[in-house]
Amino acid sequence: MMGQCQLLGKSHSSQVLHPFISLIDSCKLHCLHFSSWDSSKEWIVDMPQNEDIEAVCLGLGWAAAATSAMLLRLFTIGGVQKEVFCLPGPIVSMAGHGEQLFIIYHRGTGFDGDQCLGVQLLELGKKKKQILHGDPLPLTRKSYLVWVGFSAEGTPCYVDSEGIVRMLNRGLGNTWTPICNTREHCKGKSDHYWVVGIHENPQQLRCIPCKGSRFPPTLPRPAVAILSFKLPYCQIATEKGQMEEQFWRSIVFHNHLDYLAKNGYEYEESTKNQAVKEQQELLMKMLALSCKLDREFRCVELADLMTQNAVNLAIKYASRSRRLMLAQRLSELAVEKAAELAATQVEKKEEEDFRKELNAGYSNIAAEWSQSRLKNQVEEDTEDSGEADDKEEKPEIHKHGQNPFSKNADSSDVPAIKSGAVTSSNQGRVNPFKVSASSKEPATSVNSARSTNILDSMNKSSKKSLALNRATNNEKSPVIKPLLPKPKSKQASAASYFQKRTSQVDKTEDVKEENPQNSSSETPAMCPQNTENQRPKTGFQMWLEENRSSILSDNPDFSDEADIIKEGMIRFRVLSAEERKAWASKAKGGTTSDGAEAKKRKRMVDESHETENQKEKAKENLNLPKKQKPLDLSTNQKLSAFAFKQE
């Protein structure tokens, strides 16, 4: 058994140096890993107490050991223990090929000299799955299992003691099909063939002839014989039986191509095309034979196995043979096949579209959920802002009665009055505490000036106007000085306050309208400062700008700026010290000249600024009213006495 497992491990490997498994003792597993790239080429694993190894096999990157405890232990070729699972019965034999593990065990006790064996076929790749779930293993009556293995293409096969070789037919629900009988090739009754390998393309059965024994001799080295496959079809001697056997044998021995394509393995398309061509030729020959025998119904059955092109050829053959009924039947069959082909194509396309939509749906679920969530959040924010606006409007109505000029009045407590409620000073006195009807309406936009006070805006505008006047004029503008302070009533003081403030606001607005170029001229004045703050270029940067084209021409595959800079640094370091100093001095000279130009530009801007300010100052002096002459002392005394008498 140990020799058989070693032989299977060597003959079904795609590696040049395959691991070698041996049993030092029935409770120790010894592996020699020749293709290991480290210094340790072997490893040993001891089995638990009272557990012996009964069968071993190798696969692609894994090793399996079946024990007397009806357990199957999986290992990596490096010695890492993997899965352990139970067997339904005592182990008989195992075989491995690639990712496939072929297990045969006793299902129970056989009757009348027959064996009762079960078979499991597992795939131990990334997607582990079981192909055969303990199905009964078919054997010839009163025979036993002799050889278990895989074909070179990876199809499970086994041989019984009667010389029947069976192969797994994946195209017929994983059933077993007899493909050869080695006893037919034996000359004597005591002669046998020991199977060494099975090849599906080309169809070859490699065996060692054993004269008078079941096992081949070791010395001298035995010769290998090649046997042909033959399925046990009826009437092999006739032309019809031979073509049928050839057709179905071609089908069975090319099922591995579909298996390889399904599992993502590479194979030659020419092999499959050649097989299909041979099968269609055999079908056409059988159809012609049936036509000669006046078996038109059989011709339609054979045409059902053909492809669309072959059916068209059959229709031509039937029409030339003057078999109109057969041609009509075949044309109907061709229409059905065309409809089926179109339906299958539509189904495949729909399935592909469904998968694409499904994948796109999974990718868009998060985006749609986030969009809906954002929409709900925006709606909630708008509702909350609307409620807050309603709450803000109510206290504002009650605050209109407060004095806006009191010391304790904050900017938030000042009543909100729209700019439309305040008129200019030339329209006469205006009641500042009057509430317009439009202020009671709810605000329609967030940016409305409802929540701000007109007095605050006046203060801000006056501050801005003062800042502009100070920036443009070094001297203060002439202001009419008041006379001796007189006590005034609150209403009069408020009216005068509004008149003064509004006149200042109008004046600042006029100044802005007359000089729109003032603001535009201030922005470019900042540009020289920004240019002065920029870092000066180094000598390497200037050298790189001039030599960038040569670097790109020498290295056209450079697409990243980092690669260009790296190559430039290497070339710059190769330069002599004098050249590098020259580039550094050149960079310093460039920066100084740039600084001088920036200062010159700034000086020119300042001069133009001064000329504009002088023009504005002259215009303001022309627009200002004439100064009033101060009153005499006697008149001042009279007025003060009059005010005292009135009080």
Automatic annotation (TrEMBL):
> Keyword Transmembrane helix on this protein?
no
Q: Which residues bind DNA?
A: 533-602
Identify the CDD domains for this entry: HMG-box_WDHD1
Q: Which Pfam families match?
A: Ctf4_C, HMG_WDHD1, Mcl1_mid
Q: Where is the composition biased (Polar residues)?
A: 436-460, 490-502, 516-533
Keywords per UniProt: DNA-binding, Nucleus, Repeat, WD repeat
Among InterPro entries, the record links this protein to: HMG-box_WDHD1, HMG_box_dom, HMG_box_dom_sf, WDHD1/CFT4_beta-prop_2nd, WDHD1/CFT4_hel
Q: Which GO terms describe its cellular component?
A: nucleoplasm
Q: Name the residue ranges with Acidic residues bias.
A: 379-390
Q: Which SUPFAM superfamilies match?
A: HMG-box (SSF47095)
The UniProt GO MF terms for this protein read: DNA binding
Instruction: Specify the HMG box domain's residue ranges.
Output: 533-602
Q: Does the keyword Repeat apply?
A: yes
- Its main localization is nucleus
Q: What subcellular locations does the record give? A: Nucleus, Nucleoplasm
Coiled-coil spans in chain:
none
Where is composition skewed (Basic and acidic residues) in this entry?
503-515, 604-620
Function, as annotated, reads: Core replisome component that acts as a replication initiation factor. Binds directly to the CMG complex and functions as a hub to recruit additional proteins to the replication fork.
Question: Protein name, please?
Answer: WD repeat and HMG-box DNA-binding protein 1
Taxonomic source organism: Canis lupus familiaris
